[in-house]
Amino acid sequence: MNVSQIKQTIYNNPMSPFQIFAVSVCVLISLIDGFDVLTIAFVAPSISAQWGLAPQQLGVLFSAGLAGMVIGALIISPFADKFGRRFIILCCLVILTVGMFASGLSTNHTELVISRIFTGLGMGAILPGINTVVAEYSSNRYRSLAISIMAAGYTVGALIGGVISIYLIKHFGWQYVFFFGGVFSCLMIPVVFFQLPESLDFILTKKSNNALDKLNHLLSKLGLQTCSSFPQASIETHQKSFKLLLAPNILKSTILLCVSNFMLMCSFYFLANWTPKILVSLGYSTDLSITGSLVMNIFGIAGGLLLGWFSKKYSVQNVAALMLVTAFIVVTAFGFSANVLPLLFTLIAFIGFTIFGAMAGLYATAPAVFPPQIRATGTGIVLGLARLGATLGPYVAGLLIAAELPRGYYFLILALPLLVSAICVFVIKPYQE
């Protein structure tokens, strides 16, 4: 079998149990990533009360982990195309474990900011790796659905974080929310080491000394015919991988995807991080404010899965664009709504449904933009630059709130990026081999 035949067999046949298992492991990792990223939103009210933090300091704290994610996605994730997706995922899990325990042991604002930046290195680099593995082990028919389920795993992790946080903060203190996340990440290290397969495209494009043995071992697990010699296609192309990023058709799509993700993350992380604190400022309890985040995440899971289902019949980009426009309307409505709890929670539910669904759509779009040999590098660059938006959103919100801008106005300002994101994702052209 040549490279093309191997890929076409995997992409066109029904997914085997081994492929489903590989995707499932990535979903679990995404769950951990979601827990770790949004933990700070759940503990922020307790930390703010204990340490007497100003809104600007909270904004810095929210943005610290996201700043680390930018560095991780831009600097660490490209190494996945050189050393393998599986190796980088393992390194990131180690970073997450150490960073979460360090966060729980922090005794002041500065220490926690540094710990969150370190944790962000792992959070930023792990997503491009698992996104690539899911895309490569999924069939054409179920690829968008599989990536949507992976994105939903991120939301489930945030949901678990909210539920666990309510109990742990009440009985043990906010530090134990971080400790729980550290244990969770640590338990996944042996699972990935022994069970997660290496990316097929990485094996095919990165010819190492034992590449044929690795390929045949993987083919046997996939139930495919083994090869007597290593397929030669795509190796020369790999050596020109960075030049491919500058090719006109890929560069244009890369820029559009970067802008779309940047704008979405700017609004998304503002909402994810500040929603509990805003509800507290409106007069509701800490438990109720965390419940608001849970509502957002529960409906976010539904939105991500629904997008994946629709993408089997409709363009994932068109569905994502529609969700982004709807999210803009709902986020703006929340900002100008009356302080009535049922109304606020209803709007929060719609926000979660649309904005998490749109995020799943952008995750599904990324692998289609890049050729296999630069998929991790390209996805890492896109998500790394997107994290700049994730860093900017919460920080700008802190400044606007500190300036006592009315809620409706700063919600409108931070909802506008969703419209820009919708336009960009709508016009992106997928890569054609």
TrEMBL record:
<feature type="transmembrane region" description="Helical">
    <location>
        <begin position="319"/>
        <end position="338"/>
    </location>
</feature>
<feature type="transmembrane region" description="Helical">
    <location>
        <begin position="250"/>
        <end position="270"/>
    </location>
</feature>
<feature type="transmembrane region" description="Helical">
    <location>
        <begin position="290"/>
        <end position="310"/>
    </location>
</feature>
<feature type="transmembrane region" description="Helical">
    <location>
        <begin position="87"/>
        <end position="107"/>
    </location>
</feature>
<dbReference type="InterPro" id="IPR036259">
    <property type="entry name" value="MFS_trans_sf"/>
</dbReference>
<keyword id="KW-1133">Transmembrane helix</keyword>
<dbReference type="Pfam" id="PF07690">
    <property type="entry name" value="MFS_1"/>
</dbReference>
<feature type="transmembrane region" description="Helical">
    <location>
        <begin position="409"/>
        <end position="428"/>
    </location>
</feature>
<dbReference type="InterPro" id="IPR020846">
    <property type="entry name" value="MFS_dom"/>
</dbReference>
<feature type="transmembrane region" description="Helical">
    <location>
        <begin position="146"/>
        <end position="169"/>
    </location>
</feature>
<protein>
    <submittedName>
        <fullName>MFS transporter</fullName>
    </submittedName>
</protein>
<feature type="transmembrane region" description="Helical">
    <location>
        <begin position="113"/>
        <end position="134"/>
    </location>
</feature>
<feature type="transmembrane region" description="Helical">
    <location>
        <begin position="344"/>
        <end position="370"/>
    </location>
</feature>
<feature type="transmembrane region" description="Helical">
    <location>
        <begin position="20"/>
        <end position="47"/>
    </location>
</feature>
<feature type="transmembrane region" description="Helical">
    <location>
        <begin position="382"/>
        <end position="403"/>
    </location>
</feature>
<feature type="transmembrane region" description="Helical">
    <location>
        <begin position="59"/>
        <end position="80"/>
    </location>
</feature>
<dbReference type="InterPro" id="IPR011701">
    <property type="entry name" value="MFS"/>
</dbReference>
<feature type="transmembrane region" description="Helical">
    <location>
        <begin position="175"/>
        <end position="196"/>
    </location>
</feature>
<feature type="domain" description="Major facilitator superfamily (MFS) profile">
    <location>
        <begin position="22"/>
        <end position="433"/>
    </location>
</feature>
<keyword id="KW-0472">Membrane</keyword>
<keyword id="KW-0812">Transmembrane</keyword>
